[in-house]
Target: Integral membrane protein
Amino acid sequence: MTLIAVGLTLLGAVCFAAASVLQHHAVTTTEHPDAPELDETSASSPGQSGAAAARHMNVRHLLAIVRRRRWLQGAGLAAAGSLIHAVALLLAPLRVVQPVGVLAVPLAVLMSAWKARRAPSRGVLIGAGLTVVSVAVFVVASAGSATTHTPSATATLTAGIVIGGIVALLGFAGMARRGRGPLRCLALAGAVAAAYGLVSALVRVAAQAAASEGLLSPFVLGCVAGALVAFLVGAWLVQHAFHAGAPEIVIACLTVGDPLVAVILGAVLLGEGTTTPIGAWVLLGTAALTATAGVFTLAHHHPDAVAARAEQEPVAVVT
Model:
C-alpha cells in the first residue's frame, strides 16, 4: 500500500507542476481591468505607470483570470492532483505521502524553462536540487517509523485553530505588500502551504475516524467541512501568490511547507512520531532545514526575483 501511495503522489506531483505553470501564465498575462492607460507624463514618472498601478490583484482582476482557458486547464489538473493525493493519504501515513510531492519543484522548473525556451540558471538548479534531495531523505527517514491513531475532536479543533491563525497571519503579511516580489510571494505561498497541510491532515484524520465511527459521523463530517474551507482559502491565496512571483517559487514553498505542517500535525494529532527515535528526528530536522534553504536559494536566484531586484536599483541620471 505504501508503494502504491508513493506512486499516486508522484502522479499528483506531475498534475500540480503542470497546473502551476498554466495558472501562473494565466495570472501574469491577464490584463488588469483597472489599469490606466499611459500618457506622456505618467510614462516619464518612475513608479506611476499603469502596469505598476495594476499589480495588486482585486476581485475584478481575479474574475477575469478565472475565465481564461489556461487557468481553467490548470484548475482541472490541480483538482485531479488533489483527488489523487487524497487517495494516497488513505493508503499511507502523512509523513510518508506528503513529502513525495517535492518532485513538483523540478518539474515546474523544467516546464517553465521549456515554455520560456531558456535554460534554468545554476542557482535555480541548486535550489531545486537541495529541496528534492532533502525531502527525499525526509521520506526515507519517515517511512520506517510512522504509526498512526485517531485523534480526539478537541485536539483536531485546536490544531485547526492554530494552523488557521498561521494562515491568516502569513496571508495578511502577503496581501499587505503591493506589487510583485519574492517576499510577498513567499508569504502568500507559505499561507497556502499551511492551509494545504491542514487539508491533508484533516483528510487523514477523517479517514481514520471513518473506519471506526462511520462516514456520516459528526466528527468525520466536521473534518471534511474544515478541509473544504482550508482548501478554498488556499486556492484563493495561491492565485495571489502566482501573481506575486514565479510558479517555481510557489511550488517550492508548497512542497516544503505543506509536508512540514502535515508532519507536525501527524506527530501531534495522529501520533505518527511516537515510535521515532531521537536520531531519526535529528535527521528529519536537518533535512527540513536544508529543504528550506533550497527554497530560499530558488527564490533568490529565480529570473523573476533577479529582474525585480534590478528594477528597484536606482538609475544613474547623466547630465
